[in-house]
Each structure stands twice: as C-alpha cells, then as structure tokens.
C-alpha cells in the first residue's frame, strides 16, 4: 500500500512541479480528502498557493435532479470564473458511487457537456496545467459495479501513480533507437526478426531496470483538453 504522503509527493514533485505563488486548485471528494490535504501541504512546501474544492456524490447527482435541461445547457459561472486566476488543477476524480449514473436521463448528460463549450474554449485559450489522478475513481462501490477486485485494482493504480516515468521514457527511447538502427541496417526483409530479438532484449533489460530503486512520479496531463468538464467534477457547476 502506498501512503498518501508518497502519492502527494509524486503528484507535486513529479508531475505538477509548481512555481512559487502558483495558484493550484485541488478538486476532491470525501473519500480522497486525506490525499488532497497531503497534496496541498506538498504544494505549500513548494511555495505554491493551493486551495481545496470539496465535492460530494449528492451534489454531483443533484445537478441532474435539480436543474432543467435548459439550465444544464448554460455554463457555470464557477467554471469560467476560476480560470481567471487558477494556474493549475489537480483532479481527484469522483463520484464515489457510479451506480446512480444509470438513472440519469441521456438528454441531461448531453446538455451538461454541451453547456461546457464556453468553459472549454476559455480553458484552451489559457491552457492551465492539469494533473488528473485515477486513484480518485478507485472505490469499493466502483469495483462492485465494474466487477473488479478492489485490493488488486487499488494496488495497481497506486503503483502506476508513483512509477518513475522519466526512467520508463528513457527505456522506451532506447528500445526505439535500437529497433530503428537494426531495421535500417538489415532492410525490410529482416525487420521482423530484428524486432523480435530486440523485444526479448528489452524485456530482460526492463526487468533489471524495474528492480532498481526509483524516485516517485506520476503522469501529468498538461493539455487542457485532457481534463474532463469541470462541471462533471463539481457539484456546484451547472
């Protein structure tokens, strides 16, 4: 099991890498608030200016119960307003229980995403940094709904969150370079055998690299389009 502190260090030091006074908004649900708090503390240590945005399942599903289709077609003032000053977002995705989504009318889901156009347009223009953590979607309720083994799923996602992506990327570039050189030297007719040999070599090499100690990091999504609609993550957005 990976601790919240280790995950938080990976998020902040390995992915977000905030600058001093960088305004960071951390979107969280009750089941990820411990990790959100640890992440905010790491942001403070880096000199950034973090804030927590708490959402709940009730507020998320309340969007569809309490707002009309016409209202959902209109972008939330929170969505576009926050972009005026927030430099970076960290998303600890929710909701905890996905089962009620099956009861949401399709036209309301469609209206919600269509209403986000103004938000997306502004986000694409500003392009804030976005770090989205899959760990927020790893819950017992979701595991039951999806038919997954919760402990194994959680362990897999936690391990992926703290993987050393720089070392993994370097290995990928090394393998790509070796395959490319062998293919160029031997020509198309021998490209497949060469690739097979290099894949076996890379497999042995990867086992050695994976066994070596690594520093924590995780993947970041720096493109604004990689983050889902803010309203989909925020109970107050409509």
Q: Tell me, what's the shape?
A: globular
* Class inferred from helices and paired strands: alpha/beta
- Give the end-to-end Cα distance, rounded to a whole number of Å: 37 Å
Mean pLDDT equals 80
SSE pattern, N- to C-terminal: HEHEHHHEHHEHHHHH
Word description of this protein:
- There is one protein chain.
- With 238 residues, the chain is of the alpha/beta class.
- It has two domains: 4-163 and 217-233, Thermophilic metalloprotease-like (3-Layer(aba) Sandwich); 165-211.
- The protein is 55% helix and 9% strand.
- It is built from twelve helices and four strands.
- A four-stranded parallel sheet has the order 2-1-3-4, with helices on one face.
- It is globular and about 60 Å long.
């Amino acid at each position: 099991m990976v601790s919240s502190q280790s995950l938080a260090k990976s998020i902040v030091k390995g992915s977000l890498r905030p600058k001093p006074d960088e305004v960071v908004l951390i979107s969280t649900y009750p089941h990820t608030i411990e990790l959100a708090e640890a992440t905010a503390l790491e942001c403070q240590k880096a000199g950034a200016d973090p804030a927590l945005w708490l959402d709940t399942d009730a507020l998320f599903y309340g969007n569809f119960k309490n707002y009309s289709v016409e209202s959902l077609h209109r972008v939330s003032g929170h969505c576009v307003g926050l972009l005026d000053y927030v430099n970076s977002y960290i998303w600890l995705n929710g909701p905890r229980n996905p089962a009620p989504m099956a009861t949401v009318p399709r036209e309301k889901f469609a209206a919600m995403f269509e209403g986000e156009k103004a938000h997306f347009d502004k986000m694409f223009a500003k392009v804030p940094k976005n770090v989205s953590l899959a760990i927020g979607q790893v819950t017992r309720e979701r595991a039951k709904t999806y038919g997954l083994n919760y402990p194994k799923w959680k362990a897999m996602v936690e391990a992926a969150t703290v993987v050393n992506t720089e070392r993994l990327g370097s290995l990928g570039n090394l393998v790509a370079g070796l395959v490319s050189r062998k293919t160029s030297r031997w020509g198309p007719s021998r490209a497949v055998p060469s690739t097979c040999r290099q894949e076996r070599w890379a497999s042995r090499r990867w086992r050695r690299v994976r066994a070596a100690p690594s520093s924590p990091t995780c993947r970041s999504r720096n493109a604004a389009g990689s983050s889902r609609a803010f309203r989909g993550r925020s109970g107050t957005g409509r």
